[in-house]
Amino acid sequence: MTTDAGALTAKKLFISYAGPDRAWAEWVAWQLEQAGYTVELDLWDWAAGDNAVVRMSQALQQADRVVALFSAAYFEHQRFTTDEWTGVMSGRDRHGRLIPLRLDDAAPPPLLRPLIAPSLAGLSAEDAHRVLINAVRTTQRPATEPAFPGPQVPRQRSTNEAPRLPGAHQPTLWQVPHRNADFIGRDRDIDDVRRRLRPGQPVVIQSSVPLGGVGKTQVAMQYVHRFAAQYDLVAWINAEDPQLVPARLTALATDLGLVAEHGEAGALPALRRYLQQPKRWLLVFDNAETAEAVQPWVPVGIGHVLITSRRGNWPEFTRVTLELLTRRESVTLLRHRVPELSVDNADVVADKLGDLPLALVQAATVLSTMPVELYVQMLDTDADEVLNAGLPPSYPRSLAAALRVSITELADDDEALHLLRLCCVMAPEPIPIAMLTAAPSPVPEPLGPILASPIRLYRTASRLGDLIGMSQRGIQVHRLVQTLVLSQLDAHKQDDLRRQAGSLVAACNPGEPASAVTWPAWSQLMPHLLALDPGNTDDRGLRDVASDAMLYLLYSGNTGAGFRFAERLYDQWRQNLGPDDPHTLTAAAELAHAHHKQGRDREALNLVEDTLARRQRTLGPNDPATLRSANDHAILLAAFGDLSRSINRVNDVLLRRVAVIGPDHRDTLSTRGNLAAWRGEAGDLHAAITGYEQLLTDQLRVLGPDHPDTLTTRGNLARWRGETGDHHAAITGYEQLLTDQLRVLGPDHPDTLTTRGNLARWRGETGDHHAAITSYEQLLTDQLRILDPDHPSTLTTRNNLAHWRGEAGDHHAAITSYEELLTDRLRILDPDHPDTLTTRNNLAAWRGEAGDHHAAITGYEQLLTDQLRVLGPDHPDTLTTRGNLARLLLVRGAVGAARAQATAKLEAERRLFGSGDKRTRRTQELVNGIRAQMGGRPGARRNTRKKR
């Protein structure tokens, strides 16, 4: 093939494509590289372990143009391709950056329909090459003779590697089972196979669970059909019986015409010689048992060898491990086959079946005629029957039949059978060996002696074969095995097993849930705690573990899960134990914490006040639990702006805690932090800094440098140093804190994200608005990925990003962002929530900055009315609004109205803070200025916008 070298620009191109079009992507990338372009293709340029989202973002930023391979798969919403083409089309330099090429007749979304998209479908390799190059090259003619493009090629690949045009070539020998037309997902696994297959480097496809039906054969089959054009010969060999493999290879040699009809003796040597020729071939050994059974038959040549196996011991082979389907893939598979099935019902079925592909296929067949409610019920009562139904013709026997044989074989092994049953009442996640051996008192026979000895436990578990998986993380039993085993036991026996498992989990309490050191152990314990339903247990030890688990979820940053767990336990314990039971009140307190972390302070306050009253009545005013609720009450009073009551309450709690639990108790130290914070909020910045400095010294001594409370104090200290005007100290403090949080908490912990936001704020305060904007944009991207669009922290970042865009001079962007944010906060929160009121304040402020004084005054007047009703006349936000309104009224010439607002603000601040406070003095200057009817723009201070 030849190209017009003068038309090439040698720009960097990124290939955007859907997984099923991988062969097209390789062919396009190859042609463009050979033509002198620099090409980035994930298969060639991204290494194993790379973050695909990050690499995609970098590729889109660095590429001059993006070659998009349009197809029906490309426009499926769940694919990364949606992020790729929308990212290009939303950019300011989007014109001409996207180069669309059609692979089929799929209609693109409306935004892409105006684009001219040449088609490669149905063309010869020569014609497709010409269409591709014409689409990519520019239309400008060069003024001078272009240089020969050869030296610009960034890399040279062997012609034996050159991808062929998909569909333009078919193997001369094709011995492959028919393709599954209903195959769903697995694009990443097929891509992984393609990436790893190399001459002399066989690839083994295995599954992460010991069960059959994960999809090893299906993935191999899809790979073969998808990349058929890349091979001259493809042969599929059933290797389940090693003794039959030589005969099947001999038959292959015969089909190739390498031996006469009765000359089988020389068939295998002839086949080896044939495969050593420079031909592209693919041999698939399906369902091989061991490496030893296949190794003698693996040929040497430039072809590829693909193996599927249920066994895990392939030490010298490259492996691709199939995980269970993702929940989204499971739901898609079920609804593809049963369209009338709702997403929620599909999710329930997928969860009950543990996302196992074969079980999902069987379920889809059954659900085409059976109501989903009945199917789910039968999984609990008649699992063996329902899991035998709907078997695809290509499978020899159902999962239930295969598992039933394995379970029946344990009938004479009482110890192994009882161990299996115990594991079946726990979660399908790995069960650490240490958890199974942790019982403080002997477990009844026959399990007692087994669990008392880790070595005996290991040997017993090894006899369970394919019914379990064993790894460094422990013993793992798939949900379907659990379902089948438990369906054979009566309710009494199941309850007895759950009591035994509960005693094991209770004995494994990892300890201090606020310490990051214990979080890995908590992470392992949580699935099994949830599986045992601690809300309905009579085991007090299990309830104690559940109480600590609520704290673990909240401290480790999993606020959503913490809220759901606390809400469920509160409802169950209130019903089962009564509203005054200590466990019920513990759940109520942690549910209030979760409400507060998610911005629902009104719900938190109501719950805390009820819990405090009950604890005072049942436990007394000085009980540590009562003091914890009193401390929570003070925090929420401050959240609603009642700093005076909050400070008084915190002082009282601090005195009581020192007397009851001592000055070094973690709760006492936490109270000192709250007191320092509220003093700072009340205007005494020096007291806040001094309080936090002293607290940090004690926390380092008592808790250590990596405790979350210690890290929080460092962040608070940096903040108040910044509030005094020492921006450099704030930035340095937050930079050092971020380094430690990344090490201790990880990049996705909410506290780490919060520190990134605080660091961005103080960089902006130094005048580096661009750095603040960039940091907030990056933070918002991560929060949308880690949290969700409606999370309070995500909304806070949007607020701050709007602020700094306004500070950078883009008032229109600030106003638009605040309008969008207000819409979302009204939807998520309510009109009277403090954050909603704050957003209204900021929107009015930037409208005033943009010169729309009428809109700003109207916004402030309406806001002030609501703040007086919701927050009261003395709340700091109410006073801020009065000041902002007074300044704008003065600009508009409404001197009397301006004076009324400023005077009301001054009187409140004199009463609250005293005449010497800087806030009071500032307002006094405003009042004096109004009285003097200063010319120009009275009141030099800008409208106050809150960066929350």
Largest sheet: 6 strands, parallel
Q: Beta-strand level of the residues, as a percent range?
A: 5-15%
Tell me the structural class.
mainly alpha
Radius of gyration: 34 Å
Which bin fits the share of residues in helices?
Answer: 55-70%
| Strand neighbour order, sheet with most strands | 5-7-8-9-6-10
Choose one word for the global shape: globular
Distance between the termini: 61 Å
Low-pLDDT stretches are: 1-10, 139-144, 146-156, 936-948
> What do the pLDDT scores average to?
84
Number of helices: 42
What's the number of extended β-strand segments? 12
Element layout with pairings:
Layout: E1 12-16, H1 22-34, E2 38-40, H2 42-45, H3 52-62, E3 65-70, H4 80-89, E4 98-102, H5 125-136, E5 173-175, H6 187-196, E6 203-207, H7 216-226, E7 233-238, H8 245-255, H9 267-275, E8 281-286, H10 291-294, E9 304-308, E10 318-322, H11 327-337, H12 343-352, H13 357-367, H14 372-381, H15 383-386, H16 399-408, H17 414-424, H18 433-436, H19 447-451, H20 454-462, E11 469-471, E12 474-476, H21 479-487, H22 491-506, H23 519-531, H24 540-555, H25 559-576, H26 582-597, H27 601-618, H28 624-639, H29 643-660, H30 666-681, H31 685-702, H32 708-723, H33 727-744, H34 750-765, H35 769-786, H36 792-807, H37 811-828, H38 834-849, H39 853-870, H40 876-891, H41 895-913, H42 918-931
Parallel strand pairs: 1-2, 1-3, 3-4, 5-7, 6-9, 6-10, 7-8, 8-9
Antiparallel strand pairs: 11-12
